[in-house]
Amino acid sequence: MPNSPMFWRIVRRLITANYGRLFVILLALGAGAAITSALLNLQIDAKRRLTTEFRALGANVIVAPRDTNANSGGGTLEQGLIANLPTENAGKPVPTVAFLYVIGAVAKAGEIHHEAAVIAGTEGQGLTQVRPGRRTEYSADLEKDPAACEVGAKAATQFKVHAGDSLHLRNQGREATCKVYAVVATGGAEDTQIFTNLATAQALADLPGRISLVQLSVTGTPDSIDRFIATLSQRLPVADVHGIKQLAEAEGKLYNRISGLLSTTVVIVLFLTSLCVMAGMSNVAIERKNDVGLMKAIGGSVRRVVRLFLAEAILMGIVGGLIGSAVGIVGSIWLGKAVFGVAAQPRWIVYPVSVGITIIVSIAAAFPLRRLASVRPANVFRGEA
Predict the structure, then answer these.
(1) Cα 284–286–287 angle (5° rounding)?
(2) How far is CA 231 from CA 226, 234, 251, 376, in A?
(3) Are 175 and 166 in contact (CB under 8 A)?
(4) Short-list 86, 116, 80, 75, CA closest to 98
(5) For labeling, which of 168, 190, 235, 331 is most exposed (least CB within 10 Å)?
(6) Rounded Cα gap, residues 346 and 95, in angstroms
């Protein structure tokens, strides 16, 4: 683009010739940029928020035995396979917990009457991530006890125990004792279970070195999780690796719907913005016919005229985009809190993208100025339309 002082002096005069029209065009471009940047930032942040919310629902990948026959280790897996499981996916850690389930007899310490309950032995990092719920009672000091255990909310009511109480566990003549350090409410089957360390459950079941299954909470897009499952299946041919279909599908569908809605809104807003700017540019084209005719009469080329108006459109797009995009990103923080309950994290890549889109819209909306290229100086001097 020409760098001559005269060129930019003419551009400045063109832009500031009518402050009212300039304000309207910049307002339209700024509003469009603000809404575009806000929705694009929300769209990117929605993926993170949805992933976080769905991971709060618990594990989404299960590693289970292929052989479910109840014979000598049948229906269980080798505990050693935990070492072969990936610790991260897409740069995010993967909480992994091994479980061994035992149906035993349970009673509060000191009581004679025992009742049947599911005892879940656990080992691994991230039990609170793979198992949804919240702790209604908790003692950090008791958690360090080697015999510590968690109790589901319904089981705690059934056995009348609280954090600090002890439970007596037994199964086919084998016995153990655990001290309750937390009561957890999940709203699911876990509310009726007793969670001990894996070694305790293995001793009660007489299954040393065995586990029932492994639960993993894998963060990532549905496609990324599918690839994770496929890779893990190849690594563990003796196990059945599968995702929890309902969670994966629900997450993917919900994000696609939100993304589609936001994208459609952005397109509509940009279209309306271009119409507003185009209306202003139409008035500009009518007002500047005489100016263009004079430019051509004194030797100005069509290319130079086009460059003048193109520079004008680009500058207005830059100004409107810079201001509007900044306002939109700030506004998206408030919108994120209103929609998701947590302020959206600003994604600064959105800023240059939104400014670029605004510049493109400004250039496209300058389409009415193309008619100025066909203005004939003789017609202008004769006062013809």
Answers:
(1) 65
(2) 9, 5, 21, 69
(3) no
(4) 80
(5) 235
(6) 27
Q: What is the percentage of the chain residues whose pLDDT exceeds 70?
A: 77
Distance CA 88, CA 94 (A): 5
| Token couple for 210 | 């065995």
User: What is the pTM for the complete model shown?
Assistant: 0.58
pLDDT score at 202 = 94
User: Do residues 92 and 264 make contact, with C-beta atoms less than 8 angstroms apart?
Assistant: no
Q: What phi and psi values does residue 134 have, to the nearest 5 degrees?
A: -140, 150
170 φ, ψ (degrees, to nearest 5): -150, 155
**pLDDT for position 384:** 53
Closest CA relative to residue 162, chosen from 146, 142, 189: 142
Q: Shortest CA distance to 97 belongs to which of 66, 140, 128, 133?
A: 128
Q: What is the pLDDT of residues 87-121, one digit of tens each?
A: 888 778 888 999 999 999 999 988 888 999 999 99
DSSP 93-126: E--EEEEEEEEEEEEETT----EEEEEEEEEEE-
